[in-house]
Amino acid sequence: MHGAQFETDAYALVHTIPGAIPGVVNAHTGAEDGGNDGQAYPTQAHMRVVLLEQLYGGTFSLENSVWPSWRAWLETAQYPTDAHVQFLSELIRMNGSTTDARFFLEHPVAWDREHGRKFRASVFSLTYCPYSRAAKARLSALQANFSIVEADEIGSSGQVTSFKSLLKLVTGHPTFPKVLLNTKVLLDEDGLLVGMLRDAGALPNVM
User: Fold this and answer.
1) CB 129 within 8 A of CB 176
2) Which helix (H) or strand (E) holds 130?
3) What is the domain extent for residue 158?
4) Quick one: pLDDT at residue 106?
């Protein structure tokens, strides 16, 4: 499959699945997770799923990818009218079929849950940052199951700066570390870390 085919397949999905077009309400029966129901997408959370998929799948690139365009959307808060098609096209490209994109449109709640289970806990860290080291030590002490992305090891100094900027945009969180549970950004001011890790399935059952 090539780029034009991804887009063609994405357009076919949005015109055949009720509620797939933002602003066009799905006349479903009202069952829970009955479809996208005309909601706007992609959101920051949807972009985080794509980012994590690419980082852990070894396919992430700051250039020659969707990220220059998506970064501009986030920076300006102005999305093109076909942003939803571009997002679906990327899901199709990443998975080599329309299966995941269709799942997203037909069962968005289950899609979020499924991808959340896949990633559990992720820490975006800086190797030289004492707060990052403390967060990793705390998670290790809790025997949490977590993955680490060292932002300052992503590439050249220019790429590191660009990646840090992208992380700020997709998480809405300017400082490090950035801890994601099931792709949701965790801020632990309320002291709920242990409970949230357990709910995310990132702690051993004995905890």
Assistant:
1) yes
2) helix 130-141
3) 120-199
4) 92
**Can you state the percent helix, strand and coil of the chain, rounding each to 5?**
50, 10, 40
Mean pLDDT by 10 residues, the chain (207 residues): 86 92 72 75 95 94 93 96 97 96 93 87 92 86 89 94 96 90 71 58 57
The answer as to whether 99 is a domain residue is yes
Indicate whether 207 belongs to any domain.
Answer: no
Residue the block writes with tokens 């998480």? 171
Question: Which one, of 200, 1, 184, lies nearest residue 91 by Cα?
Answer: 1
Q: Partners of 186 in the beta sheet? A: 179
* Number of folded domains that form the chain: 2
In sequence order, the β-bridge partners of residue 124 are 149, 178
Q: What SS3 state is found at 157?
A: helix
Domain boundary among 91, 116, 141: 116
pTM of this prediction? 0.87
